[in-house]
Amino acid sequence: MATQTLRPAAAGEPGDAPAGDHLTRSDRIELLRAMLLMRGIEQRAMTLYRQGRVPGSFYDGYGQEAISAGAAFAMAPQDRLCVLHRDLAAHLVRGVAPARILAQYMGRATGVTGGRDGNVHFGDRALGCVGMVSMLPDMMLVATGMAMAFKLRGERRVALTFFGDGATSRGDFHEALNWAAVQRLPVIFVLENNQYAYSTPLDKQFAVPPIERASAYGVAGETVDGNDVEAVFEVVRAARERALAGGGPTLIEAVTMRMHGHAAHDDMRYVPREQLAAWARRDPIDRQARRLAALPDPVDVEALRAAVQAEIDAATEEALAAPMPDPATATDGVFCEGEPEPLGDGRAPWSGFARTEA
Amino acid sequence: MTAQTATRPSPAAAGTRRLTYLQAISEGLRDEMRADERVFVMGEDIGVFGGAFKVTDGFLEEFGPERVIDTPLAESAIIGTAVGAAVVGMRPVCEMQFADFISCGFDQLVNVAGKMHYRQGLAVPITVRLPSGGGFSGGPFHSQNPEAWFMHAPGLKVVAPSTPADAKGLLIAAIRDPNPVVFLEHKHLYRRIKGEVPAGPYATELTARVARPGRDLVVIAYGAMVHVALEATAPEALDGAQVEVLDLRTLVPLDEAAILDAVRRCSKVVIVDEANATCAAGAQVAALIAQRGFEHLDGPVVRVATPDVPIPFSPPLEQAVLPSVERVREACRELLAY
């Protein structure tokens, strides 16, 4: 199977051209909005962390917003996602309210896990998302299993999972790609290559570019500029079409840069300053904002920023007013009693789904 | 919870047949697959070959390759994909070819499956069948009893039947349970133990069972050790002492009421594990009795288990470490004389 390797350099510097004709004007605004919301919520959460209101540590996806926003935007309501810790925009696209996310970070009762787990370790089951575990490639197998069930039942649905460059070194990465290829499953693997796994750079992680493994496993492989939200959307949309047509899994390598430390405590002295400066010029939000401002009918990006900020301010107030969980409930819910509630359908704002259904 | 007595199923009851432990597991699985189309099985060599022990022999022909999946040799993937299928509404039953190989799927079971409901309210109804136990020169990698690993991990149920009727009923109960269930089926019982098994699907409650009532001492065991305990404590072997045998059947949940009832009845307790001794299921039972049954004891709580060594291959070495009828009988004899 062909493996395309569209390195970021080939994708344009900084590549302001629109990607394909699948996105309407309002879709493109929605993509920017999701990224702005992710960045704004995470910046607010970092402030709350420094104020001592977020326990533990805090992990963000600054600079990587295009990947989770673009990928989730290509997912239909009945599709299912495994979302990782640099992918907040996927939750926002699927419909998780910002106040619940901020409450989640602060360990409040109204957070998505009600204080059971922290950070971005959550998935709103009502919206078709499975929350991550810290052993990152584990979710590749969960997504593969969801796709296996879809195929077994003859359903037109796909599963998608995110993971990082470090995850490619673990056995579950291999087991998932191999299994999905053998059974030709409708699953999309989105590798967020953000150059570092904690402090470990790529050259200590693998000797072969990970996208080259796609052909070795017999799956389609695509490398995409992970800082171009429309390009990410397009490659995931195509992968979904391929999966629905029986073409099996796709490995997508979205090349990006982790612009912050591994977590709040990490000053990432190990990252060369010039590397950060180069990637800062490729900021995914700036790029999409420039695109929309340059349209014949320009988008008022500043008004959009202000609206997003107002939404975050209101969500912050709501989350801060929320109660902490009752300690008496700490041992509840280890086991499911009664009939299980399976995953529900998520929000799917892409206009393409409405057009298809119409 | 209270222990059921050993009255069911009675050999004379209509609709029962005499089956081996292995046949009973196979029948339970088949009955539940016929009754519930969400149930499917997957594992290594379980389809065309019918499984290393032939539990799924004939399944491929009856249910087809979509529901009887020969998987790659990848235990983590077997468990992980089962989790994925379960959260979208399926009821996967995974076979580990040998219980020992679950170490390769440990992370998916303990971290993904076990913690899912507590963290996200998302149920993971999977059953993981573990052909476990030693006694036939399987060596260090085909003889283990890993149940305690999973007792220690929140969110997993752990069951370990000793009879054919319970093997079928507990397997069906495991499949119907909305939680991940680790199902330990003892390889040494597969073809050696026969019993009356009711026809048709039925679920056995996750409680302990009095395998033989008594009053002078109780031996608490599960799995293959129930049969060792019964043989070791036959009245003629112990000068007519009336020794009770309590078959735990389920380790999580642990039937604490049944254990404490037995202690009240008998006052002397021997606990037998085939697993390595340290932190074994029996250690938890001993701790429970020390905390909540102390007043009723008339002697020290005695444990018989495999010492903390890998299970050796050569018959004299293996026999030297696994709890035997003689070791259990000797432990009972000493405690009865206390």
Please tell me about this protein's structure.
The complex is a heterodimer of chains A (358) and B (338). Chain A has helices spanning 25-50, 65-73, 88-94, 98-105, 138-153, 171-183, 212-217, 229-244, 273-280, 284-293, 301-321, 351-357; strands at 3-5, 80-83, 129-131, 159-164, 187-193, 196-197, 200-201, 220-225, 250-255. Chain A is of the alpha/beta class and 358 residues long. Chain A has one domain (3-9, 20-266, 274-323): Rossmann fold. In chain A, strands 1-8-9-5-4-2-3 form a seven-stranded parallel β-sheet, with helices on both faces. Chain A has a two-stranded antiparallel sheet with strand order 6-7. The model of chain A is unreliable at 1-15 (pLDDT under 50). Chain B is of the alpha/beta class and 338 residues long. Chain B folds into two domains: 16-198, Thiamin diphosphate (ThDP)-binding fold, Pyr/PP domains (Rossmann fold); 209-336, Rossmann fold (3-Layer(aba) Sandwich). Chain B has helices at residues 21-35, 59-63, 75-87, 106-120, 147-151, 164-176, 224-232, 256-266, 281-292, 315-321, 325-336; strands spanning 16-20, 39-43, 68-70, 91-95, 127-132, 157-159, 181-186, 194-198, 209-212, 217-221, 243-247, 250-252, 269-276, 302-306. In chain B, the strands form three sheets. A seven-stranded mixed β-sheet of chain B has the order 3-2-4-5-7-6-12, with helices on both faces. In chain B, strands 9-11-10-13-14 form a five-stranded mixed β-sheet, sandwiched between helices. Chain B is globular and about 60 Å long. The interface between A and B is large, with 47 and 39 residues.
